Inverse folding.
């Protein structure tokens, strides 16, 4: 699996709390077959005012620690950016860590609040695509407004966004509403790729072997390969060149 959404980077958001916990999570990721990860700490002006400049030294230290443990896990730095005009409009988006490139365009992973699809989101997605940026909406199945009106997910895609589902949503990790929405979005072919959105050892861990095996049985190996390796690698490969 190529995992494009993880909060493994220690002590920068609500993910790994210590370096040792982050290293344990890296070992868990390797054990379940993850070979490459783009780490995506939150960038959220209110709660996690991270930046490329502040995250880079933390990432480099963690990358060195993973190498010192001889873990066969390739790492790159990205971010999960909370939708906000201050972060995305004008040229501000150019200072944000991307998760890779697709068709020559930088790819930004964007987070909506769980309660709603913010007013202006469709217009923002269209504007970003006009700037030759490829937006990705993280875990739409966990947004309460999308749960209630799945057509909103189609609207996001029609505006130009990719949709990233979370593996744990299919087993009820985020509640029955998110599970039902994830299943319906998968049935409708609306997910472009899946990711772990792992946070901690004991909560939303990167140990996905059992879940991925269940998804392979439910949706077929060919489709799961496309969702967990093919497109994720197309996006991320520039980060590992």
């Amino acid at each position: 699996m190529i995992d494009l959404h993880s909060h493994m980077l220690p002590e920068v958001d609500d993910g790994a709390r210590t370096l040792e916990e982050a290293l344990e999570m890296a070992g868990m990721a390797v054990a379940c077959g993850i070979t490459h990860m783009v780490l995506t700490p939150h960038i959220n002006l209110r709660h996690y005012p991270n930046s490329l400049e502040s995250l880079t030294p933390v990432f480099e230290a963690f990358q060195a620690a993973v190498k010192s443990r001889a873990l066969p896990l390739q790492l790159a730095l990205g971010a999960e950016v909370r939708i906000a005009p201050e972060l995305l409009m004008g040229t501000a988006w150019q200072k944000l860590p991307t998760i890779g490139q697709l068709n020559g365009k930088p790819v930004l992973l964007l987070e909506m609040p769980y309660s709603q699809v913010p007013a202006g989101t469709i217009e923002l997605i269209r504007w970003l695509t006009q700037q030759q940026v490829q937006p990705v909406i993280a875990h739409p199945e966990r947004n309460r407004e999308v749960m209630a009106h799945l057509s909103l997910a189609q609207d996001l895609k029609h505006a130009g966004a990719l949709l990233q589902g979370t593996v744990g949503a299919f087993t009820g990790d985020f509640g029955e509403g998110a599970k039902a929405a994830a299943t319906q979005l998968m049935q409708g072919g609306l997910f472009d790729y899946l990711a772990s959105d792992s946070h901690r050892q004991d909560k939303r861990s990167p140990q996905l072997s059992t879940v991925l095996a269940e998804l392979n049985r439910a949706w077929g190996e060919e489709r799961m390969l496309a969702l967990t390796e093919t497109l994720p690698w197309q996006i991320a490969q520039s980060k590992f060149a």
User: Anything to note?
Assistant: The radius of gyration is 17 Å.
